[in-house]
Specification:
By secondary structure, the protein is mainly α. It is 55% helix and 0% strand. Helix 2 (28-45) packs across helix 3 and helix 3 (76-96) packs antiparallel against helix 4 (102-121).
């Protein structure tokens, strides 16, 4: 099942675009950070289910999608708070790791930096609609914090 994005397209779209770019450049920390943040957003949208009731099979939901629940709608502020919490969690975990696992701490800091860069570069709720209005208003993929350089024609 492919979840449909229910929040405004700002930060979620930036995370998806960064995930695609990270996969193309084989940047493992960026891929892990984006996947984790997108998963945290999807989990926050999930609606809790009621405790299962014992009963007859004939009283259960029947048919495709009969037991599906509507997902919560998160505001851009909620999405930003979730990603901000992911950044804080990674930085705290990196600070707590002993020196013997310095490579893992460096990976966690790199993941936090990727998410922090996306937080700074993503539109807020007020500007999210403006970004979708025109093709020319989107930020280029070679913005600050990315390893990819602009196309040769634009240098």
């Amino acid at each position: 099942m492919t979840p449909t994005p229910t929040s405004t397209p700002g930060l979620r779209a930036a995370l998806r675009a960064e995930l695609t770019a990270a996969m193309k450049r084989r940047d493992r920390p960026a891929m892990a950070a984006c996947r984790s943040a997108l998963g945290a957003i999807d989990n926050a949208e999930a609606v809790g289910i009621a405790a299962p009731r014992a009963g007859a099979i004939e009283s259960s939901a029947v048919g495709v999608g009969a037991a599906e629940a509507q997902r919560r709608e998160l505001s851009e502020h909620d999405v930003r708070a979730i990603v901000d919490a992911e950044v804080a969690e990674r930085r705290a975990a990196a600070a707590e790791l002993p020196p013997s696992v310095a490579a893992r701490a460096a990976d966690l800091r790199a993941e936090a930096d990727v998410l922090a860069t996306l937080l700074v570069g993503s539109p807020t709720e007020e500007t999210a609609g403006d970004e979708m209005a025109g093709e020319g208003s989107r930020r280029p993929p070679w913005r600050v914090g990315h390893r990819q350089s602009p196309p040769a024609a634009m240098r």
